[in-house]
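FORM 7B: Structural annotation worksheet

SECTION A. Query
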Amino acid sequence: MTIIEKIIADHSGQKSVKPGDIVDVFIDTRAARDFGGANVVKNLVDNGLTIADPKKTIFTFDCNPGGSDQKYAANQHYCRLYARENNIRVYDVNAGIGTHLAIDNGLVWPGSTFVSTDSHANIMGAIASFGQGMGDQDIAAAWAKGAVWFKVPSSVKINLNGKRPAGLSAKDVVLNLLSVFGANKLLGCSVEIYGAETEKFTLAERITISSMGTEMGAIIILFPTSPALLNELKAITGKDYPMVTAGAEAVYERTFDLELGKFVTMVARPGHPHDDTSIDTVRNQKIDSGFIGSCTNGRIEDLRIAASLLRGRKVAPGVVLKIVPATDAIWTQAMDEGLIQVFKEAGVMVSNAGCAGCAAGQVGQNGPGEVTISTGNRNFEGKQGKGFVYLASPAVVAASAVAGFITTPDQIPDQPTLFAASGKGDASSNTAAPKVKTAKPTCVEGNVWIIQKDDIDTDMIFHNRYLTITDIKEMGQYTFDNLRGYEDFAKKAKPGDIVITGKNFGAGSSRQQAVDCFQSLGVSCILAESYGAIYERNAINAAMPILTYNPEFLVAANLQHGDRVTVDFVSGILTNQRNAVTVQLGKFYDAQLAIYKNGGLL
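SECTION B. Predicted structure
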């Protein structure tokens, strides 16, 4: 049998299996991440399922270490609570990438099985272990039953013949393979890689190649074990493991013979990991940022390579280089070896361990139009941000970050290439039509919202999870959605409405959006007993009418929610149209009125 057939047979109680067989496979370690973990728990709870074996069940929080996103934080805490109740081990936000933790902590071993909500769980092929990324229901079933059904895939054999060229990285190897096989020529297959040179591949190199099996459409890329690999695993885990290889008469659907000596340094062009080209075709492409990390290239070897090129050098002016170790243990080792100091002296941003740029929850994202060179495994549009991502080896990324453009370590220039001014930021080059000032009404009419609460802060008005929004037109829908009892304000508010509230309205942060969201909805003015100091300035500068009132105001005006009133900003007179009662407010002061008539400070 092939390697995968041996492992599946051993874990399904079968003497042998062949492609197409469907069997229940016992899973040695069953993982869920912060991405998908909450849904796994929900599936278990909703279906009244219990955990088959807590000792074989783990959570790994690696997509968003730190919970900087509110939804991730909520999901992580939900999983922690479930873990406490069910005695499940949690590798929390301080630990690192789950698949690497599983290898380094002996949760997987040659010949074992592993599933996770991580699509790159097939990284386990690096140690001849069967790893699979699965959906929430599959993982829930594995947690509850200890096994999942699986269809035995066909096996493909790739022989990498000849000598490995000097300087050819493992990332180059897998990018060359992607250039040959694309994203679908090995679709649904188990791939085994052989060759005299591949037996010398280190654990980190095997991890790099196996990690990108998903991008090739393969079920898994498996390396047979070698004595050197088993020694390396023993050094990490302290455990002795068996050799795992295919049988001498194993049957492969296809066999490919490739000349490793013809492989070259490659990059993947933005958009597709399989759109690969020799680095010479994109050399000198100016970059804005670089990223070294992810489950593909976050091992200590990768960091040493980066440090060797960054030592005594600086990241090019205007370029940002971000480095994220795969695990906290690797981070600590990098610190002990002085690598972190090298990175900091070079001007690198070093983050805590985790998935980083490959996932939306950590450093490594780029903005619209930004050109990034990355060691990640994917560069799909929008995967690592809104910019353009080239994939390359740690050496190429580090060299490029120093040069300011895509290059190789042997061609780092003495002086980096600087960014040239485009003129786009020069106001004198702005050809847009000048803004036309329109007369601003100094008297408005609208229905009132009476919100009798003091100290309504800016997070209640416009929560920080929306702060990336820059278009005022999009802001209104989120107004008050974090103010208890008024979460539906934006849906019910009408243009011209007037908000009346208590003391210290707009306390908290300096965010302009907490003012602009009312303008987005067409709210005509805000009345409060007092305002947060920054909020008051922000409102006045944005020509958002705000006035103050004395505590007796509501009683004197006999105001009720929904009453229609007129407010004169110059005189400060409010008239309740329901009963014709007029009351005195604090009128606009001269500077406020001048800014308002100007349409705003700017």
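SECTION C. Observations
The chain has three domains: 3-262, 275-411, 443-597. DSSP finds 19 helices and 25 strands in the chain.

SECTION D. Sign-off
Analyst initials: ____
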